[in-house]
Amino acid sequence: MAELTDFEQQRDRLWAVAYRITGSVADADDAVQETWLRWQALPADEVIDPRAYLTTVISRICYDLLGSARVRREAYVGPWLPEPVVAAGGPEDRVTLDESVGLALLTVLERLTPAERTAFILHDVFSVPFPEIAEVVGRTPESVRQLASRARKRVRAEAPRRSVDRGEHQRAVEAFLRAVMGGDMDGLLQILDPEVVWRSDGGGKVTAARVPVLGNEKVARFAQRLARGFDPATMVVRRREVNGAPGLVLVDTAGGQAVVFAFSVHQGLITEIDVIANPDKLRHLDLPNL
């Protein structure tokens, strides 16, 4: 049986690969478990490079998942957003934001083909060589190079304008929160980019905009309307890391309803707001102790 220690050394990386390819916490968890089962069944001396082997295995699993996921997402009610990764906070000395796990970029990746997305993630984010990626997607190394190049061009063209300065991002989020909680329409208009985009994922389970909302005035009204839907007596606002960047979590401690906010910030203004309200996509979060 293959060594447990070899697998555990790669577990965090494997999950990171799986989440970026699938955009789903649940699928990433399942993919890691399936990879472990396959690893466990191997003779101990069969694999020379555990890191490369395990990366290939989990990437194949996720690549296959993408096909069925695309069918499900085509029938999805309203915008489809990835399941958020929420944490209490990042390292104090962290200066830049992790674009590769940001909800805005993951949303752009949804527009790629499964092969393009897999090639881009493996090569550009995890530096996997093209011959190894070719084994995952069943193409030649040269074909994979072209896939990654096409994906890279599209990501560059469609990825949101964003700041890599953590302080700038945090200040914008705090200004947004103050304005929303204070019912300050002028304050909201000042912190929102004139062309800001609001995407809300309710999945047909809770009320949410069925199409993206464009423009600072419309987005400001949506933000205020959402906040008014919570009871001030039972609502808790938590400042949390959402996919590697400062974000917000609103929780109704009485009813259990929750909403996660992720932001893109550029030149001090909020350019995109991704709002995940579908309770199925927040099931993995320990909301009472978050």
Automatic annotation (TrEMBL):
InterPro entries noted in UniProt: ECF_Sigma-70_Domain, NTF2-like_dom_sf, RNA_pol_sigma-70_dom, RNA_pol_sigma70_r2, RNA_pol_sigma70_r4_t2, RNA_pol_sigma_r2, RNA_pol_sigma_r3/r4-like, SnoaL-like
Keywords: Sigma factor, Transcription, Transcription regulation
Alphabetized SUPFAM superfamilies for the sequence: NTF2-like, Sigma2 domain of RNA polymerase sigma factors, Sigma3 and sigma4 domains of RNA polymerase sigma factors
Pfam entry (one): SnoaL_2
Domain RNA polymerase sigma-70 region: 8-69
GO biological process, one term: DNA-templated transcription initiation
Family: Belongs to the sigma-70 factor family. ECF subfamily.
Limits of the RNA polymerase sigma factor 70 region 4 type domain: 104-154
Subunit and partners: Interacts transiently with the RNA polymerase catalytic core formed by RpoA, RpoB, RpoC and RpoZ (2 alpha, 1 beta, 1 beta' and 1 omega subunit) to form the RNA polymerase holoenzyme that can initiate transcription.
Span of domain SnoaL-like: 173-272
Protein name: RNA polymerase sigma factor SigJ
Presence of the UniProt keyword Metal-binding in the record: no
MF annotations from Gene Ontology: DNA binding; sigma factor activity
